[in-house]
Amino acid sequence: MQPVGNGQAKIVVVPCSGIGKTYGTVTREAAYIVVEELAPETTCIVPLSLLVLGDEEAQAAVRGVPVVTLDGCKLACATVNVGEAGGHVAREFTVLDCYRRNRQCKPKGIAELNEGGQALAQALAEEVVQAVAEIFETRQD
Amino acid sequence: MTTQFLEARVDKFIFRVMPGYLYSEAGVWAALDETRQIVRLGLSDYRQQSSGDVAFFNPSAVGTRVSVGDELASIETVKVDLEVPSPLTGMIVAANEALEDTAERINQDPYGSGWLVELRPDRWPPVGLLDSEQYLAVMTAQAEAES
Q: Is B55 within 8 Å of A100 when comparing Cβ atoms?
């Protein structure tokens, strides 16, 4: 795992892999905003699909570092599969909870989110970045 | 005391029906509070499960008169925007204010704390509603048709 400036490994973000679901798309959009725009120096993505398939590199990537999961529904596949891979979920987010906090951001669309969905992804990403900052303040790995 | 629900299993899903309540085919239950002569209304377990996790609950205003089929409330879920049709004619006298902050109760406890509105009916018992056994059969057929 690539270290950040202070020698600590990047925090792993695992979004939902649900295809064909608006809320799953919101998680992936949010994850990209986090790792590509808001916190590229301190975060990286591990695809949930690789964890589900038992990919050893992906499993290794979620072990020993804090993981933030973004789930699209209450099945919480991201959170469950990180746990099953031996990873430590430091914070878990669900789109529905974020939507309840941002009612003006009504998500629609699947392959391409509407304006509300993009705004919701941005809001979720900002919550994740806040969580990442808090994790960095307290982590000891 | 544990409630003994009627149950139907369709595929991997189990749907519960509260005995003693009356139901519309749209999956709205009605239960009379005999002391207050008020009817409490909510979504059946099948209707809440098939509609998905609830994000927001928007009841019609207290004081609104509704006829059978009129909108009691709208519910926004992760799957659908659902208009809840009234199974009765009467006046809405209360809405479940707790759902404003905890709409998930509709999913978690549809026959209890997830109730939607209370209504003073023009007549009771109403005409055309199903008892729990009848609704169990109708709901099971609906669920099997959708599976």
A: yes
| Contact present, A120 and A99 (Cβ < 8 Å) | yes
**B75: in domain:** yes
Q: Which domain holds residue B47?
A: 28-127
CA distance B53 to B79: 8
Residue B73 lies in a domain: yes
**Is B111 within the bounds of a domain?**
yes
Assign residue B48 the CATH number of its domain.
Answer: 2.40.50.100
The DSSP bridge partners found for residue B85 are: B71
Contact B99, B124 (CB under 8 A): no
Q: Please report the domains of chain A, with CATH numbers, ordered by start residue.
A: 11-134 (3.40.50)
Maximum separation of any 2 CA atoms in chain A, in Å: 41
Nearest CA in chain A to B56: A100
- A84 contacts A52 by C-beta, under 8 angstroms: no
User: Could you give the percent of chain A with pLDDT greater than 90?
Assistant: 82
Q: Which helix (H) or strand (E) holds A119?
A: helix A115-138
Give the total number of structural domains in chain B.
1
- Tell me if chain B has a CB within 8 Å of the CB of A103: yes
Which ipTM value was assigned to this complex?
0.73
pLDDT tens readout for residues A85-114 = 999 999 999 999 999 999 999 999 988 999
Q: Which two tokens stand for residue B79?
A: 């799957």
